[in-house]
Protein backbone atom coordinates (compact mmCIF):
# COMPACT_ATOMS: atom_id res chain seq x y z
CA UNK A 1 0.00 0.00 0.00
CA UNK A 2 1.33 3.43 -0.98
CA UNK A 3 1.83 5.87 1.89
CA UNK A 4 0.59 9.35 1.02
CA UNK A 5 2.99 10.76 3.63
CA UNK A 6 6.09 9.37 1.87
CA UNK A 7 7.64 12.16 -0.27
CA UNK A 8 8.94 9.53 -2.71
CA UNK A 9 5.67 7.57 -2.94
CA UNK A 10 4.84 8.73 -6.47
CA UNK A 11 8.37 9.21 -7.82
CA UNK A 12 8.94 8.27 -11.46
CA UNK A 13 12.44 7.98 -12.97
CA UNK A 14 11.10 9.42 -16.23
CA UNK A 15 10.04 12.67 -14.57
CA UNK A 16 11.88 15.92 -15.26
CA UNK A 17 13.57 17.59 -12.28
CA UNK A 18 10.77 20.15 -12.17
CA UNK A 19 8.11 17.46 -11.76
CA UNK A 20 10.18 15.26 -9.44
CA UNK A 21 10.53 18.15 -7.01
CA UNK A 22 6.81 19.01 -7.16
CA UNK A 23 5.87 15.39 -6.47
CA UNK A 24 7.79 15.43 -3.18
CA UNK A 25 5.38 17.89 -1.61
CA UNK A 26 3.09 16.37 1.00
CA UNK A 27 0.03 18.51 1.68
CA UNK A 28 -1.86 18.30 4.99
CA UNK A 29 -5.05 16.18 5.00
CA UNK A 30 -8.34 17.97 4.34
CA UNK A 31 -11.42 16.99 6.35
CA UNK A 32 -14.92 16.77 4.88
CA UNK A 33 -17.89 16.48 7.23
CA UNK A 34 -21.40 15.99 5.90
CA UNK A 35 -24.96 15.06 6.82
CA UNK A 36 -27.93 13.46 5.07
CA UNK A 37 -28.90 16.94 3.89
CA UNK A 38 -25.69 17.15 1.82
CA UNK A 39 -26.42 13.77 0.28
CA UNK A 40 -29.95 14.86 -0.70
CA UNK A 41 -28.63 18.15 -2.11
CA UNK A 42 -26.09 16.29 -4.25
CA UNK A 43 -28.66 13.77 -5.46
CA UNK A 44 -31.04 16.60 -6.40
CA UNK A 45 -28.16 18.37 -8.14
CA UNK A 46 -27.74 15.46 -10.55
CA UNK A 47 -31.43 15.15 -11.28
CA UNK A 48 -32.92 12.85 -8.63
CA UNK A 49 -36.60 13.65 -8.22
CA UNK A 50 -39.30 13.66 -5.55
CA UNK A 51 -40.48 10.38 -7.10
CA UNK A 52 -37.15 8.71 -6.20
CA UNK A 53 -37.44 8.73 -2.43
CA UNK A 54 -34.45 6.41 -1.96
CA UNK A 55 -32.35 9.41 -3.05
CA UNK A 56 -34.36 12.37 -1.80
CA UNK A 57 -36.01 11.32 1.51
CA UNK A 58 -33.76 10.61 4.48
CA UNK A 59 -36.32 8.34 6.20
CA UNK A 60 -36.64 5.96 3.23
CA UNK A 61 -35.61 2.37 4.05
CA UNK A 62 -33.05 2.40 1.21
CA UNK A 63 -31.92 6.03 1.47
CA UNK A 64 -28.51 6.33 -0.17
CA UNK A 65 -26.04 8.62 -1.86
CA UNK A 66 -25.83 8.18 -5.60
CA UNK A 67 -22.41 6.57 -6.29
CA UNK A 68 -20.81 9.61 -7.91
CA UNK A 69 -21.19 11.45 -4.59
CA UNK A 70 -17.63 10.12 -4.24
CA UNK A 71 -16.31 13.11 -6.21
CA UNK A 72 -17.68 15.58 -3.63
CA UNK A 73 -15.61 14.97 -0.44
CA UNK A 74 -12.32 15.06 -2.38
CA UNK A 75 -13.02 18.26 -4.29
CA UNK A 76 -11.62 20.86 -1.83
CA UNK A 77 -8.54 18.70 -1.36
CA UNK A 78 -7.76 18.01 -5.03
CA UNK A 79 -8.23 21.64 -6.04
CA UNK A 80 -5.90 22.86 -3.29
CA UNK A 81 -2.81 21.16 -4.75
CA UNK A 82 -0.54 23.98 -6.03
CA UNK A 83 0.27 23.80 -9.74
CA UNK A 84 2.38 26.94 -9.93
CA UNK A 85 5.52 24.82 -10.40
CA UNK A 86 4.52 24.65 -14.07
CA UNK A 87 5.90 27.26 -16.47
CA UNK A 88 3.48 30.07 -17.38
CA UNK A 89 0.87 28.65 -15.03
CA UNK A 90 -2.43 30.51 -15.33
CA UNK A 91 -5.43 29.10 -13.44
CA UNK A 92 -7.77 30.67 -16.01
CA UNK A 93 -6.29 28.31 -18.61
CA UNK A 94 -7.03 25.18 -16.57
CA UNK A 95 -9.53 22.65 -17.91
CA UNK A 96 -10.86 19.57 -16.12
CA UNK A 97 -9.91 16.80 -18.52
CA UNK A 98 -10.77 13.44 -16.96
CA UNK A 99 -12.11 11.96 -13.74
CA UNK A 100 -11.80 8.46 -12.33
CA UNK A 101 -13.64 7.38 -9.18
CA UNK A 102 -13.25 4.02 -7.47
CA UNK A 103 -15.76 3.20 -4.73
CA UNK A 104 -13.95 1.10 -2.13
CA UNK A 105 -16.64 0.66 0.54
CA UNK A 106 -20.34 1.34 1.14
CA UNK A 107 -20.97 5.10 1.09
CA UNK A 108 -22.08 6.46 4.49
CA UNK A 109 -25.07 8.83 4.27
CA UNK A 110 -23.35 11.09 6.81
CA UNK A 111 -19.93 11.15 8.38
CA UNK A 112 -16.52 12.66 8.94
CA UNK A 113 -14.01 11.92 6.22
CA UNK A 114 -10.35 12.76 5.65
CA UNK A 115 -8.83 13.37 2.21
CA UNK A 116 -5.19 13.12 1.22
CA UNK A 117 -4.00 14.20 -2.22
CA UNK A 118 -0.75 13.89 -4.15
CA UNK A 119 0.47 14.57 -7.67
CA UNK A 120 0.38 11.21 -9.44
CA UNK A 121 1.51 12.12 -12.95
CA UNK A 122 2.54 15.17 -14.98
CA UNK A 123 2.75 14.98 -18.77
CA UNK A 124 4.30 17.51 -21.15
CA UNK A 125 1.90 17.85 -24.07
CA UNK A 126 3.98 20.50 -25.82
CA UNK A 127 1.60 23.45 -25.68
CA UNK A 128 -0.05 22.23 -22.50
CA UNK A 129 0.58 20.21 -19.37
CA UNK A 130 -1.62 17.39 -18.06
CA UNK A 131 -1.56 16.89 -14.31
CA UNK A 132 -3.24 13.96 -12.55
CA UNK A 133 -3.96 14.27 -8.84
CA UNK A 134 -4.74 11.12 -6.82
CA UNK A 135 -6.91 11.49 -3.73
CA UNK A 136 -7.76 8.93 -1.07
CA UNK A 137 -10.83 9.54 1.09
CA UNK A 138 -11.05 7.68 4.39
CA UNK A 139 -13.35 7.50 7.38
CA UNK A 140 -11.84 9.84 9.96
CA UNK A 141 -12.46 7.46 12.86
CA UNK A 142 -11.86 3.97 11.42
CA UNK A 143 -9.35 4.81 8.66
CA UNK A 144 -11.37 2.73 6.18
CA UNK A 145 -10.77 3.70 2.57
CA UNK A 146 -14.08 4.84 1.04
CA UNK A 147 -13.08 6.47 -2.27
CA UNK A 148 -10.11 6.85 -4.57
CA UNK A 149 -10.25 9.63 -7.14
CA UNK A 150 -7.86 10.44 -9.97
CA UNK A 151 -8.50 13.90 -11.40
CA UNK A 152 -6.70 15.08 -14.53
CA UNK A 153 -6.49 18.73 -15.49
CA UNK A 154 -5.03 20.30 -18.63
CA UNK A 155 -3.25 23.63 -18.31
CA UNK A 156 -2.97 25.39 -21.65
CA UNK A 157 0.29 27.25 -22.20
CA UNK A 158 2.21 25.33 -19.51
CA UNK A 159 3.91 22.66 -21.65
CA UNK A 160 7.42 22.54 -23.07
CA UNK A 161 9.23 21.86 -19.79
CA UNK A 162 10.93 18.67 -20.98
CA UNK A 163 8.69 16.24 -19.17
CA UNK A 164 7.51 12.84 -20.33
CA UNK A 165 4.79 12.91 -22.96
CA UNK A 166 3.04 9.54 -22.54
CA UNK A 167 1.44 8.36 -19.32
CA UNK A 168 1.47 4.92 -17.75
CA UNK A 169 -1.38 2.45 -18.15
CA UNK A 170 -3.40 2.65 -14.93
CA UNK A 171 -6.07 0.15 -15.92
CA UNK A 172 -9.65 1.40 -15.72
CA UNK A 173 -8.42 4.92 -14.84
CA UNK A 174 -6.81 5.37 -18.28
CA UNK A 175 -8.80 2.94 -20.47
CA UNK A 176 -9.76 4.42 -23.87
CA UNK A 177 -13.31 2.96 -23.66
CA UNK A 178 -14.05 3.24 -27.37
CA UNK A 179 -17.74 2.48 -28.05
CA UNK A 180 -18.34 -0.80 -29.94
CA UNK A 181 -19.23 -0.51 -33.61
CA UNK A 182 -22.91 -1.25 -33.11
CA UNK A 183 -25.93 0.70 -32.03
CA UNK A 184 -26.07 1.39 -28.28
CA UNK A 185 -27.76 -1.29 -26.17
CA UNK A 186 -29.68 1.41 -24.27
CA UNK A 187 -30.15 5.16 -24.71
CA UNK A 188 -31.49 7.36 -21.90
CA UNK A 189 -32.39 11.03 -22.26
CA UNK A 190 -32.79 13.59 -19.49
CA UNK A 191 -33.49 17.28 -19.93
CA UNK A 192 -31.54 19.35 -17.43
CA UNK A 193 -33.15 22.39 -15.87
CA UNK A 194 -32.00 25.96 -16.35
CA UNK A 195 -31.15 26.05 -12.63
CA UNK A 196 -29.13 22.78 -12.69
CA UNK A 197 -25.74 24.49 -12.30
CA UNK A 198 -27.05 26.89 -9.65
CA UNK A 199 -28.21 23.87 -7.63
CA UNK A 200 -25.20 21.63 -8.26
CA UNK A 201 -22.67 24.27 -7.22
CA UNK A 202 -24.07 24.12 -3.67
CA UNK A 203 -22.37 20.72 -3.36
CA UNK A 204 -19.00 22.50 -3.32
CA UNK A 205 -17.81 23.66 -6.75
CA UNK A 206 -18.29 27.42 -6.56
CA UNK A 207 -16.39 28.29 -9.73
CA UNK A 208 -18.20 31.40 -11.12
CA UNK A 209 -17.88 29.89 -14.60
CA UNK A 210 -21.08 27.99 -13.79
CA UNK A 211 -23.21 30.89 -12.55
CA UNK A 212 -21.87 34.31 -13.60
CA UNK A 213 -22.34 35.31 -17.27
CA UNK A 214 -19.42 37.77 -17.24
CA UNK A 215 -17.00 35.13 -15.97
CA UNK A 216 -18.29 32.56 -18.46
CA UNK A 217 -17.66 35.09 -21.24
CA UNK A 218 -14.01 35.40 -20.15
CA UNK A 219 -13.78 31.62 -20.58
CA UNK A 220 -15.15 31.95 -24.09
CA UNK A 221 -18.69 30.72 -23.41
CA UNK A 222 -21.97 32.36 -24.42
CA UNK A 223 -23.39 31.74 -20.96
CA UNK A 224 -22.54 29.77 -17.78
CA UNK A 225 -21.92 26.07 -18.42
CA UNK A 226 -22.92 23.02 -16.41
CA UNK A 227 -20.22 21.47 -14.22
CA UNK A 228 -18.56 18.53 -15.96
CA UNK A 229 -18.95 16.49 -12.78
CA UNK A 230 -22.68 17.25 -12.83
CA UNK A 231 -22.98 15.89 -16.38
CA UNK A 232 -20.98 12.87 -15.20
CA UNK A 233 -23.35 12.38 -12.26
CA UNK A 234 -26.48 12.59 -14.39
CA UNK A 235 -25.18 10.08 -16.95
CA UNK A 236 -23.84 7.80 -14.20
CA UNK A 237 -27.35 7.82 -12.70
CA UNK A 238 -28.63 6.59 -16.08
CA UNK A 239 -26.10 3.74 -16.05
CA UNK A 240 -27.03 2.82 -12.46
CA UNK A 241 -30.77 2.75 -13.19
CA UNK A 242 -30.19 0.66 -16.33
CA UNK A 243 -27.49 -1.84 -15.34
CA UNK A 244 -27.22 -1.71 -11.54
CA UNK A 245 -24.40 -0.84 -9.10
CA UNK A 246 -20.84 -0.25 -10.21
CA UNK A 247 -17.51 -0.07 -8.40
CA UNK A 248 -15.73 2.51 -10.53
CA UNK A 249 -16.35 5.09 -13.22
CA UNK A 250 -14.11 7.02 -15.60
CA UNK A 251 -15.01 9.85 -17.97
CA UNK A 252 -13.32 12.35 -20.25
CA UNK A 253 -14.82 15.83 -20.45
CA UNK A 254 -15.04 16.34 -24.21
CA UNK A 255 -17.49 19.23 -24.48
CA UNK A 256 -19.86 21.45 -22.55
CA UNK A 257 -23.49 21.23 -21.54
CA UNK A 258 -25.54 24.38 -20.96
CA UNK A 259 -28.18 24.21 -18.21
CA UNK A 260 -31.54 23.43 -19.81
CA UNK A 261 -30.08 21.20 -22.53
CA UNK A 262 -30.86 17.50 -22.87
CA UNK A 263 -28.25 14.91 -21.86
CA UNK A 264 -28.34 11.74 -23.98
CA UNK A 265 -26.48 8.76 -22.50
CA UNK A 266 -25.65 5.99 -24.99
CA UNK A 267 -24.64 2.71 -23.31
CA UNK A 268 -22.98 -0.51 -24.48
CA UNK A 269 -22.58 -3.49 -22.13
CA UNK A 270 -19.38 -5.48 -22.68
CA UNK A 271 -19.02 -8.19 -20.02
CA UNK A 272 -18.83 -6.49 -16.64
CA UNK A 273 -18.07 -3.12 -18.24
CA UNK A 274 -20.60 -0.59 -19.47
CA UNK A 275 -19.05 1.80 -21.97
CA UNK A 276 -21.02 5.00 -22.40
CA UNK A 277 -20.97 8.27 -24.28
CA UNK A 278 -22.87 11.45 -23.52
CA UNK A 279 -24.25 13.78 -26.16
CA UNK A 280 -26.13 17.07 -26.02
CA UNK A 281 -29.34 16.49 -27.95
CA UNK A 282 -29.95 20.09 -29.01
CA UNK A 283 -26.50 20.52 -30.59
CA UNK A 284 -25.67 16.88 -31.39
CA UNK A 285 -22.30 17.41 -29.72
CA UNK A 286 -20.34 15.06 -27.47
CA UNK A 287 -20.01 16.12 -23.83
CA UNK A 288 -18.41 12.99 -22.27
CA UNK A 289 -16.27 10.40 -24.04
CA UNK A 290 -13.88 7.52 -23.16
CA UNK A 291 -16.37 6.74 -20.39
CA UNK A 292 -17.13 3.45 -18.64
CA UNK A 293 -18.12 1.84 -15.38
CA UNK A 294 -17.12 -1.55 -13.98
CA UNK A 295 -20.23 -3.30 -12.69
CA UNK A 296 -20.13 -4.68 -9.14
CA UNK A 297 -21.41 -8.10 -10.14
CA UNK A 298 -22.06 -8.78 -13.79
CA UNK A 299 -24.17 -11.86 -13.02
CA UNK A 300 -26.64 -9.73 -11.06
CA UNK A 301 -26.59 -6.76 -13.43
CA UNK A 302 -29.80 -5.74 -15.10
CA UNK A 303 -30.28 -6.62 -18.78
From TrEMBL:
> What does the record list as coiled-coil region(s)?
none
Predominant cellular place of this UniProt entry's protein: other
Q: Which UniProt keywords apply?
A: Lyase, Peroxisome
**Superkingdom of origin:** Eukaryota
Task: Please list the GO biological process terms of this entry.
Answer: fatty acid beta-oxidation
The record places domain Peroxisomal multifunctional enzyme type 2-like N-terminal at 32-157
Under Gene Ontology molecular function, one entry of this record is: (3S)-3-hydroxyacyl-CoA dehydrogenase (NAD+) activity
What is an example of a Pfam family matching this protein? MaoC_dehydratas
A GO CC annotation recorded here is: peroxisome
Localization annotation: Peroxisome
Q: Where is the MaoC-like domain?
A: 179-286
Q: Where are the annotated segments for Disordered? A: 165-184
Would you identify the family this protein belongs to, as annotated? Answer: Belongs to the short-chain dehydrogenases/reductases (SDR) family.
- Name of this protein: MaoC-like domain-containing protein
Amino acid sequence: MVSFTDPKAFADPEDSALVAEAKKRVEPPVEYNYTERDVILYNLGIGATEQELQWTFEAHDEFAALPTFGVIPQFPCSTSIPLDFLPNFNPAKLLHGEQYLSIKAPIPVSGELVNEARILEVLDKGKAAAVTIIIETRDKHTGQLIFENQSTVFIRGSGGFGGKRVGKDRGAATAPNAPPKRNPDVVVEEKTTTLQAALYRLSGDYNPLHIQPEFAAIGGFDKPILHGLCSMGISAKHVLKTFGPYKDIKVRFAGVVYPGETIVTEMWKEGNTVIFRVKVKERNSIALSSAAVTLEDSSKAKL
